[in-house]
Design a protein that fits this description.
Blueprint lengths: L9 E3 L1 H13 L3 E9 L18 E6 L2 E4 L6 E8 L6 E10 L4 E12 L10 E8 L6 E2 L11 H13 L9 E2 L11 E2 L2 E2 L5 E4 L9 E4 L6 E2 L14 E3 L10 E4 L14 E3 L33 H7 L6 E4 L4 E2 L8 E4 L5 E4 L11 E5 L6 E4 L6 E2 L7 E4 L4 E7 L2 E5 L12 E2 L4 E4 L5 E10 L4 E5 L8 E8 L9 E4 L8 E6 L3 E9 L1
Pfam families: Gp53-like_C, Phage_tail_fib
InterPro entries: Gp53-like_C, Phage_Tail_Fiber_Structural, Phage_tail_fibre_N
Protein name: Phage tail protein
Length: about 500
């Protein structure tokens, strides 16, 4: 019967002791996985090392967490949480199971009834077992995070642990200016310390003693957010609240590499003004910055020079009089005039050196044709077709933009390659205009007098044959006059011409 003299304790079972010894001797990892609870058939159980199971187990689930007691390293604490919707039984006995499913520790406890919600008194219950082992060196204290049900205490603890690992630490009241004794309520930088004040210690003769401390009447301890290796890392930042000389300053730990607290020398640097001479949060004077690489699209600082090259004005402007050369990469984004006093041929930069969207602008201000060719496997596409050479007529300007692995040509210089401006400049030819109007021309030699001749147009008009005009060749005093019957055959591809006398006749037809 449970009374004031009853004893409650946890012990390793014989199986558990054997596995502990095996783990210590052979270095074989030993992992705890599950906890079971039982009602011991409503008796008052006494744990026995010979047990291989609980007397009457009614629940077994994976552990919520398992850890070494921070006060006593020989004590392991195992925890399980029973949710509110499970219960309806007494808890009098507890068992711990390892990854092999063996009962390795057993405990009794003061009887506790675990109700369920349907009883009107459901609660979440935490069950813990504390037991002593000879060594925790080869015991694996890991749990499956997928089955953890966290208590408020556990969540609070984990939150604080993670916050303590952040480089940006809670501010300190003062920072030291010289070596101090790390004990007693001292005066630091003109401020008389009170117990519990946080202090940045940065000027110790032995630099391994630098760090964040809590002032006390006795020996100082490092602050909870900076008392382990994981919490003190390179780039740690802390602000100082008060002090005659260091009030409102900010300090950064500039010790690089792995830090072992109490062994590694710690160096703090004043970064209140950053690493540049900035007098206030707003830049003053004429601050400068490195020029970001051409075509960069990252979050690097953009200078006015970079912006000038990237947007608005052209990045550069120059004349090029050479021929048979490849234009340099620096011409990309710029305006280049081809100034050779005659025919000139230049190659565009290699496509693989420029990103999509990069453009080069070429202008022909001379009275000579210029040939734009390719370098390597490039291609030029002014009209959807691929060319190895395109021409700039006098006065033409053309943009060449990299897109989808080709140089897309656009601008005035590309118009002659457009289907809207297609042309044939032969003696019998045509010229298409953007409006849809088509002008065609040609000639016929020695037409018999007063005979009808059918003339086939270089291309058929797609929509309408508007008119045709013909003139006969004139020789002085010949009095030759030509006449024409306009499209009397109704065709869009031909017309009929008649001359009053045998002579050569030239014609112009207009349609759409």
């Amino acid at each position: 019967m449970i009374d004031a003299n009853s004893q409650f304790f946890a012990i390793l079972t014989n199986v558990g002791m054997a596995k502990q010894a095996n783990a210590d001797a052979l270095g074989i990892p030993w992992k705890f996985t599950d906890m079971g609870v039982g009602d011991a058939n409503n008796t008052d159980p006494i744990p026995s090392a010979a047990q291989t199971r609980l007397i009457n187990e009614w629940r077994r689930r994976p552990l919520n967490q398992v850890w070494v007691d921070p006060v006593n390293p020989a004590v392991i604490i195992a925890e399980q949480i029973i949710p509110a919707d499970e219960g309806g039984h007494w808890i009098r006995e507890i068992g711990l199971y390892d990854a092999d499913g063996d009962l390795v520790a057993v405990a009794n406890c003061a009887p506790s009834f675990k109700p369920v919600l349907s009883q009107g008194s459901g609660r979440t219950q935490v069950v813990r077992m504390n037991f002593i082992v000879s060594s925790t060196g080869n015991i694996t204290l890991k749990i499956d995070p997928a089955v953890v049900l966290a208590t408020r205490e556990y969540v609070d603890q984990r939150i604080m642990e993670e916050l303590y690992k952040l480089d940006n630490k809670q501010s300190v009241r003062v920072a030291t200016t010289a070596n101090i004794a790390l004990a007693g309520l001292l005066t630091v930088d003109g401020i008389v310390l009170a117990a519990g004040d946080r202090v940045l210690v940065k000027n110790q003769n032995v630099a391994k003693d630098n760090g964040l401390y809590v002032a006390a009447a006795g020996v100082w301890k490092r602050t909870e957010d900076a008392d382990t290796n994981a919490e003190v890392t390179s780039a740690l930042l802390v602000s100082v609240e008060q002090g005659t000389t260091l009030a409102d300053t900010r300090w950064q730990l500039v010790t690089d590499g792995v830090i072992v607290l109490g062994t590694t020398a710690l160096t703090f640097q004043n970064v209140t003004q950053g690493f540049a001479a900035i007098n206030s949060p707003a830049f003053q004077g004429l601050p400068t910055a490195p020029l970001a690489p051409r075509f960069d699209s990252s979050q690097l600082l953009a200078t006015t020079e970079f912006v000038q090259k990237a947007l608005g004005s052209f990045a550069s402007g120059r004349d090029e009089a050479g021929t048979g050369l490849t234009l340099p990469l620096s011409d990309v984004g710029g305006f280049t005039s081809l100034m050779a006093g005659g025919a000139q041929t230049v190659a565009l930069p290699l496509l693989n050196l420029v990103p999509d969207g990069a453009a080069i602008i070429l202008h022909n201000p001379t009275g000579y044709n210029k040939s734009i060719t390719i370098n390597g496997g490039n291609r030029i596409s002014p009209d959807g077709q691929l060319y190895t050479v395109v021409n700039l007529s006098p006065g033409d300007t053309a943009h060449f933009t990299k897109q989808s692995g080709v140089w897309r040509m656009h601008g005035a210089g590309a118009l002659k390659y457009s289907a809207q401006f297609a042309a044939s400049l032969a003696s019998s030819g045509y010229q298409k205009l953007a409006s849809g109007l088509i002008i065609q021309w040609g000639s016929i030699s020695v037409v018999a007098s007063s005979s009808d001749q059918t003339i086939t147009l270089p291309i058929a008009f797609p929509g309408a044959f508007h008119s045709v005009v013909a003139t006969s060749d004139y020789t002085l005093t010949s009095g030759v006059v030509g006449t024409v019957s306009t499209n009397t055959n109704g065709s869009l591809a031909s017309f009929i011409i008649r001359c009053s006398q045998g002579t050569s006749t030239r014609w112009i037809a207009i349609g759409k």
